[in-house]
Amino acid sequence: MLVSEISYGNWITHGSQVEEEQAATCVREALDLGITTFDTADAYAGTRAESVLGRALAGQRRDGLEIFTKVFWPTGEGINDRGLSRKHIMNSIDGSLRRLQTDYVDLYQAHRYDYATPLEETMEAFADVVHAGKALYIGVSEWKAAQIRAGYELARQLHIPLVSNQPQYSMLWRVIESEVVPASEELGIGQVVFSPMAQGVLSGKYLPGQPPPAGSRATDEKSGAGFIARLVGNEPVLERVQLLRPLAEQAGLTMAQLAIAWVLQNPAVSSAIVGATRPEQLRETVKASGVTLDSGLLKAIDEALDPVVERDPSLTESPAGRP
Fold first, then answer.
1. Pairing relation of β-strands 135-140 and 162-165?
2. What whole-number distance in Å separates Cα of residue 89 and Cα of residue 286?
3. What stretch of H or E contains 8?
4. Which CATH number fits domain 6-315: 3.20.20.100, 3.90.1150.30, 3.20.20.450, 3.30.200.20?
5. Which of 201, 202, 182 is nearest to 191 (CA)?
6. 8-66 pLDDT, tens per residue?
7. Which residues pair with 102 in a beta bridge?
């Protein structure tokens, strides 16, 4: 299966940050711009994100789209409304299909690794989902290299295609490069990466020594302020990010376009997931697709950010117990 280099994701926006009509407008813009890959999860906005996306895509040619969703995080109060047990997976796929208004998803992903469930149970449940025609492919998200290898071997034995990993990846967060990427390349697994702009920090709008701009993600709890606080409150990071501004100008790109183009330079990356609260944001970010950054520019980016880049592979982690 092929995917668009830019994927549309609705992690924080749909069902929480933006109104439904605004979300639908962004989805229509994504389609008009040639984006065919849409990523969501059952837990986003308490299942509302899937419903909003399903309504926004209703009436579109189904075989022209790649619709991804995920399972792991809580979708209810019950003790089995979370994790990767057979019970939760079988209940969750049916709920996701109902909310997305589709008979199948193209990719069904394990949103984290579940230490509380035997991997064999998880993979056998995924196999039944695939064999029932409810998903075409399976993937994982934020699994360590050894976990990916073990999951891939079981998938191979069960005759189902484990084809992707969805990790966080950006100029500032490179923890997958030393272990996850080599293992995935060996197995033929692509990376569909999230937060390529480091939750907006790499856009350059957060300035050192100044409060976050009004209306930005860092000022709005509904838009994921907690996820970005670690970076927005880190003056050395913000100072280093500003060194990218002249490099982006030299390349004829915005800082956001530079950040997305950078992740797409990695041959292991199949697609970069972006979100939007306004259609014009998508019109700008899609321009990163197809851009080639020369070796001199890549070296200059590394030199600018090296002191603040996170590379520790142990930071790819899942909860020790079910959430």
1. parallel
2. 33
3. strand 6-9
4. 3.20.20.100
5. 182
6. 999 877 666 677 888 899 999 999 999 999 999 999 999 999 999 999 999 999 999 99
7. none
Residue the block writes with tokens 């306004």: 278
Region 126-136: mean pLDDT is 98
pLDDT above 90: percentage of residues in the chain: 84
| Mean pLDDT on 260-279 | 96
* Separation CA 292–CA 267 (nearest Å): 12
Output the six-digit token pair for 246. 């002249």
Residue 208: pLDDT band with limits 50, 70, 90: confident
Q: Are strands 6-9 and 37-39 parallel, antiparallel or unpaired?
A: parallel
Length of the chain: 323
The CA distances from residue 34 to 64, 144, 223, 286, in Å, are 11, 32, 26, 9
Neighbours of 221 (CB within 10 A): 10
- Assess whether pLDDT exceeds 70 at residue 163: yes
Q: How far is CA 242 from CA 70, 285, 320, in A?
A: 35, 19, 37
Catalytic residues: 44
Question: What pLDDT sits at residue 20?
Answer: 85
Alpha-carbon distance 197 to 274, whole Å?
8
Q: Which residues of 244-269 are buried (b: 16+ CB within 10 A; e: fewer)?
A: beebbeebebbbbbbbbbbbbebebb
What is d(CA 218, CA 200) in angstroms, rounded to the nearest whole number?
Answer: 9
pLDDT in tens, 21-32: 888 999 999 999
User: Could you give the C-alpha distances from 73 to 47, 167, 236, in angstroms and in order?
Assistant: 11, 16, 33
Give me the pLDDT at residue 225, please: 56
Task: Provide the residue ranges of all domains of the chain, joining segments of one domain with +.
Answer: 6-315
In DSSP terms, 108 is beta-bridged to 69, 138
Distance CA 258, CA 274 (A): 13
